């Protein structure tokens, strides 16, 4: 009897130890759907839509951590985008299953080191310093930085940032928080046989203390796996003959200040591109924004202006986009929003879009 009790106690202790060693896993995501009418400047026609991702690109996934002892923990994230209106996986055709996150890392008092696919260095500074955050449909700054305008076979505006909003095959080192200041160092391997020097390297800085927020990033990008067709290697587009961009250097600064009655945003970015033919292209983008609490929600106002010149472009191109919206907070996890946007690219008429949608986070 005593032996049986002792064995049972030992098994129980082992089970408890195993339970403590297990990874704590969280299911997370967002479902965002809207109805409206879309026409960016340069698009061939207007579309009446029920679309996914009006304010946040819909996604689902898992994240977790395990306490390794001594202040050290292992962390992982697996998150993939989907289109809620159709149930299709990915942001677009051919997008990878876990294109939002697919990484594992170690974290502790030294900060964190992460391996795999994760955020591009440009992403957090861009989405945290504009009032429409990570809206790839209605945020003027995000549209200029990441989203091409026009039919995908004949782009009238290629995205200013020549690499994706997420980087694959990368190592990220994140510093601890130094009185509100954090830094992230990114290195992406190009993984091109015989071209080990083809890679991406970058640094971003984020500072938040009280009502003040500041940010900056720099990247030197030559690779854009796993979807090169949407980034560094771009299709020829009408009416401007865009050639393949082989390297881009970008610099960004941004700031925000919360006055309680309104939160103001401002950013400035320079993107300098090289091509295989030695032609050049440079973008200069500034943005302004405001978020003001009104009733149970917020009024949102955003504006972005980009000037594009260089020997690759010839005549200077301009794009200006303005969006105004209201985000009604039903609960901590659910909101209802409506947005009106106006967009203008040189040589194309000004076009308007609008949408009303629901977003739920889980």
Largest sheet: 16 strands, antiparallel, barrel
Rounded Rg: 23 Å
The pLDDT mean sits at: 88
Distance between the termini: 49 Å
Strand arrangement across the biggest beta sheet: 1-3-4-6-7-8-9-10-11-12-13-14-15-16-17-18
In helices, the fraction of residues equals under 10%
Oligomer: single chain
Q: Determine the number of helices (DSSP H or I, runs of at least 4 residues).
A: 3
**Unreliable sequence segments:** 1-20, 228-243
- Secondary structure: number of strands: 18
Kindly name the structural category: mainly beta
Instruction: Tell the overall outline.
Output: globular
What percentage of the residues does DSSP assign to strands (E)? over 45%
Account of the protein in words:
There is one protein chain. The chain is mostly beta strands. 9% of the residues lie in helices and 53% in strands. The chain has three helices and 18 strands. It has a 16-stranded antiparallel beta barrel. β17 and β18 form a beta hairpin. The longest helix is centred in the N-terminal third of the chain and has 20 residues. 37% of the residues are buried.
